[in-house]
Amino acid sequence: xxxxxxxxxxxxxxxxxxxxxxxxxxxxxxxxxxxxxxxxxxxxxxxxxxxxxxxxxxxxxxxxxxxxxxxxxxxxxxxxxxxxxxxxxxxxxxxxxxxxxxxxxxxxxxxxxxxxxxxxxxxxxxxxxxxxxxxxxxxxxxxxxxxxxxxxxxxxxxxxxxxxxxxxxxxxxxxxxxxxxxxxxxxxxxxxxxxxxxxxxxxxxxxxxxxxxxxxxxxxxxxxxxxxxxxxxxxxxxxxxxxxxxxxxxxxxxxxxxxxxxxxxxxxxxxxxxxxxxxxxx
Length: 282
Description:
alpha/beta, seven-stranded parallel sheet, 10 helices, 7 strands, globular
């Protein structure tokens, strides 16, 4: 992903400063660990893990900045899946929810304003909401990756995050067993309905450009804010198009971003945010 970088904790405030100066009001943090990975992804809820450290640094440097954290296990498990595995290689959904709640609590204790569970485990929103309330974090917002598709557009991010899943014999390839199928929009919508019932404050559709119809359908089906995640593969496609001389990058970015807004998104998670002034303040 040209123009995108992984920042160490000691450099993250400097990296975020120009983004804040442009008026971007929130950032979403993902972590990459150099600690040993295990079946549970336990490094993800270590108080001194990179995300937790980065939250503290950013909230100290920019108190008014809304800091959102991705809550998942895939970058911390040795198998790259979003929950622990049973001995037979199948996914342990309930254990995954328990682990995700630990991660969310550690992020909020560090100062995160919003936690965004992305693992697509059944019941993860209810489990995290219960844990937040039990520990006195009733006001923490939950942004649910509610309609998250098993997409071919995640490749660049997974390379950067070192979080690609291993193949499990007898199991669906990739994460198709728990992420939504692009062939089944009704089930994808049901995921959003369930997450809202479980206590989500914001619903998300991911990816964005390939799923503008789903953004609109989720928007029509809820009064909650709707976020759209303009993912790494979509970003890379526009970069490649411009680099090959097939289109002007600024025009492509503006048109595609407006399309996401037009479809009904209230919030956009975008790799273009750091270039907001360049593309949108004409």
